[in-house]
Amino acid sequence: PLSRLLDELEVLEELIVLLDPEPGPGGGMACGTTRHLAARYGVPAAWSTFVYSLRPSRSPLRALIEMVVAREPSASLGQLGTHLAQLGRADALQVLSKLG
Length: 100
Description:
InterPro entries: DEATH-like_dom_sf (IPR011029), IGFLR1 (IPR042355). This is IGF-like family receptor 1. The protein has seven helices and no strands. By secondary structure, it is mostly helical.
């Protein structure tokens, strides 16, 4: 289940480092950030903007996973992997694979 990721802090932290950053002013749109992942889960853009405003005290990725698990307890790591693959984030998929 996706909720397992919340217990696997080392893997979660690595994913946060890969997926949370956004390009600075003038940078091109980063592809496959937490914001894009949220859209794949059907989360409104306004929520992403709000949760990004809470950085650095709160990770958008962690908040997203907590929300998806609360809304959809049956959410799976496989589903997350599919979304990451569609976003072209092989680096994040490799980290996720550590959960076996």
